[in-house]
Amino acid sequence: MKTVKSFALAAPLALVALAPAAAQEFSKELIEKGRYLATASDCVACHTNHDGGKPMAGGLSMVSPVGTIMSTNITPSKQFGIGNYSQAQFADAVRKGVRGDGANLYPAMPYVSYSNMTDEDIHALYAYFMQGVEPVDEKAPETKLPFPMNIRVSMMGWSLLFRPNEVHKDDPIQSDEWNRGKYLAEGAAHCSTCHTPRGVFMQEQKSLNLTGGQVGAWYAPDITNDKVHGIGSWSKEDLVTYLKTGKLENRAQAAGSMAEAISYSFQHLTDADLNAIATYVHSVPSANAGQASGVTRFDKGSAGNDMAAFRGKDYTDGLRGDHAGAQIFAANCASCHGYNAQGTKDGYYPSLFHNAATAGDNSINVIAAILNGVDRHTEAGHVFMPPFGDQVNAVVQLNNVEVASLSNYLLAQYGNDKLTVTTEDVQVIREGGPKSNIVQLARIGMGAAAIAALLLAVGFVWYRARRKARLARAA
Ligand code: HEC
Ligand code: HEC
Ligand code: HEC
């Protein structure tokens, strides 16, 4: 079955490949279509060095447990970019993770998601990259991984096992809108890359699609239609608003890699496409049989504070006592979020109850928000909360004990009071999130498959690298 599919796919591409790139003149419409798809796929976010590099000229470093992977120059420069790529070679790079010279790409390039792209859309993307992107004749720094990770052929096995070898096909039972939404959400916009948990080999566990996954220091929550754990209580319009602005009042706000995905990509999508994505995402059931019952994540907690307990006492004295969390809150957070954590009327500073970050099924995003803050640029404006865990730029730095006390106060008072945060939990997030168990597997010598899978971890850690780069810039 699989071979038949790939043959069917190769035929139309082979035809286009016969014509050399330079001889073709692509229409303006086609190039524009390609530009839009490139935005939806967020190519520019990875293929640009955000410290003053030119768009698509590569050179963004993605730190991984095995070494640093550099993104490549994908401008049409013939010497340093992909100017000599035929369309078939381009298609193989984007959908199969195979470079022009036949070498395998590391899955830091998200070809697993892009593998669903239609030939038509690959054609438009190709037209854009050949004639809509400014060529940059600069060599991007090379990736140099230590042995054995430098053996690219090890990626072939991983790719055969875990890359879906199937271009999207419309499901005739579903509406056109749903099909368009699925195509974008599972492909270009790659929601599942972050929102689906990973298995032992860092592959997406498709049976748990969109039920939540760890992305570096942040947790991409359950976005299935489960009413309690997922976003089944949101309307379609709610989801569109969130994807456009990064915020849904009294429910959730986007920081970390979600803020970046919205800033670079989702906010620029058409309303029709955002509605399509919302229609599809709203149809994805949770892996748990039947809907959970109870209060939704977004309705937990209420206004109030614990300050009467320590009024009149010395601030530093209290820091070891039962009310340390409330004191740290009063000193560092209440000025923006309000003494009762009610936020501001205009909603710019959100309430910390009825808030996905404090009421999640785990405590990761409370800790991540305190340590990393929020920094989001959209057409709706610039949203900023200072990071309290930054060693270099933070105005106020909170140590692990303080962050744990504060988190426990927030959880108990405003959110999911069943959770407890330890100083170890804080340290893990401070270091950029849990390390993959693949690292362990590779260490005890599980062989090429494990090593190959380890490399996928790279795809996660780059979000961290980008954040660091941004902070360094801000300094
Ligand atoms: C999450 C980060 C990320 C995104 C998003 C991304 N890429 Fe990549 N891409 C990479 C990295 C990293 C490499 C180099 C991997 C390696 O060296 O094995 C790469 C390699 C490539 C290559 C091979 C280039 C060469 O040097 O021969 C092409 C072509 C490419 N990407 C195109 C695209 C296009 C088109 C898009 C958007 C549709 C895109 N990429 C989106 C990270 C990304
Ligand atoms: C690069 C990783 C990444 C991608 C891609 C991504 N997300 Fe997210 N998403 C996150 C993270 C991390 C959060 C948590 C942000 C926070 O709380 O500050 C999040 C939060 C959300 C939330 C809020 C949920 C809640 O309970 O707080 C929704 C809804 C959402 N994402 C939908 C989507 C959809 C739909 C897509 C695809 C169109 C998508 N995301 C793509 C990482 C990602
Ligand atoms: C200078 C003002 C300011 C201060 C001080 C501040 N915050 Fe925030 N906080 C914000 C803004 C702005 C947002 C994001 C609103 C948005 O995304 O639209 C935010 C968001 C959050 C979120 C949600 C993050 C997410 O990703 O969902 C949490 C949790 C939070 N703050 C907790 C705290 C805590 C705890 C403190 C004290 C250590 C604090 N804040 C101090 C302004 C502030």
UniProtKB/TrEMBL annotation:
<dbReference type="GO" id="GO:0016614">
    <property type="term" value="F:oxidoreductase activity, acting on CH-OH group of donors"/>
</dbReference>
<feature type="binding site" description="covalent">
    <location>
        <position position="336"/>
    </location>
    <ligand>
        <name>heme c 3</name>
    </ligand>
</feature>
<keyword id="KW-0349">Heme</keyword>
<keyword id="KW-0479">Metal-binding</keyword>
<keyword id="KW-0677">Repeat</keyword>
<dbReference type="GO" id="GO:0005886">
    <property type="term" value="C:plasma membrane"/>
</dbReference>
<feature type="transmembrane region" description="Helical">
    <location>
        <begin position="444"/>
        <end position="463"/>
    </location>
</feature>
<keyword id="KW-1133">Transmembrane helix</keyword>
<dbReference type="InterPro" id="IPR009056">
    <property type="entry name" value="Cyt_c-like_dom"/>
</dbReference>
<dbReference type="GO" id="GO:0005506">
    <property type="term" value="F:iron ion binding"/>
</dbReference>
<keyword id="KW-1003">Cell membrane</keyword>
<feature type="binding site" description="covalent">
    <location>
        <position position="46"/>
    </location>
    <ligand>
        <name>heme c 1</name>
    </ligand>
</feature>
<dbReference type="Pfam" id="PF00034">
    <property type="entry name" value="Cytochrom_C"/>
</dbReference>
<keyword id="KW-0472">Membrane</keyword>
<feature type="binding site" description="covalent">
    <location>
        <position position="191"/>
    </location>
    <ligand>
        <name>heme c 2</name>
    </ligand>
</feature>
<feature type="binding site" description="covalent">
    <location>
        <position position="43"/>
    </location>
    <ligand>
        <name>heme c 1</name>
    </ligand>
</feature>
<dbReference type="InterPro" id="IPR051459">
    <property type="entry name" value="Cytochrome_c-type_DH"/>
</dbReference>
<feature type="binding site" description="axial binding residue">
    <location>
        <position position="195"/>
    </location>
    <ligand>
        <name>heme c 2</name>
    </ligand>
</feature>
<keyword id="KW-0732">Signal</keyword>
<feature type="binding site" description="axial binding residue">
    <location>
        <position position="47"/>
    </location>
    <ligand>
        <name>heme c 1</name>
    </ligand>
</feature>
<feature type="domain" description="Cytochrome c">
    <location>
        <begin position="176"/>
        <end position="285"/>
    </location>
</feature>
<protein>
    <submittedName>
        <fullName>Mono/diheme cytochrome c family protein</fullName>
    </submittedName>
</protein>
<keyword id="KW-0408">Iron</keyword>
<feature type="binding site" description="axial binding residue">
    <location>
        <position position="337"/>
    </location>
    <ligand>
        <name>heme c 3</name>
    </ligand>
</feature>
<keyword id="KW-0812">Transmembrane</keyword>
<dbReference type="GO" id="GO:0009055">
    <property type="term" value="F:electron transfer activity"/>
</dbReference>
<dbReference type="InterPro" id="IPR036909">
    <property type="entry name" value="Cyt_c-like_dom_sf"/>
</dbReference>
<feature type="signal peptide">
    <location>
        <begin position="1"/>
        <end position="23"/>
    </location>
</feature>
<dbReference type="GO" id="GO:0020037">
    <property type="term" value="F:heme binding"/>
</dbReference>
<dbReference type="InterPro" id="IPR014353">
    <property type="entry name" value="Membr-bd_ADH_cyt_c"/>
</dbReference>
<feature type="binding site" description="covalent">
    <location>
        <position position="194"/>
    </location>
    <ligand>
        <name>heme c 2</name>
    </ligand>
</feature>
<feature type="domain" description="Cytochrome c">
    <location>
        <begin position="29"/>
        <end position="133"/>
    </location>
</feature>
<feature type="domain" description="Cytochrome c">
    <location>
        <begin position="320"/>
        <end position="414"/>
    </location>
</feature>
<feature type="binding site" description="covalent">
    <location>
        <position position="333"/>
    </location>
    <ligand>
        <name>heme c 3</name>
    </ligand>
</feature>
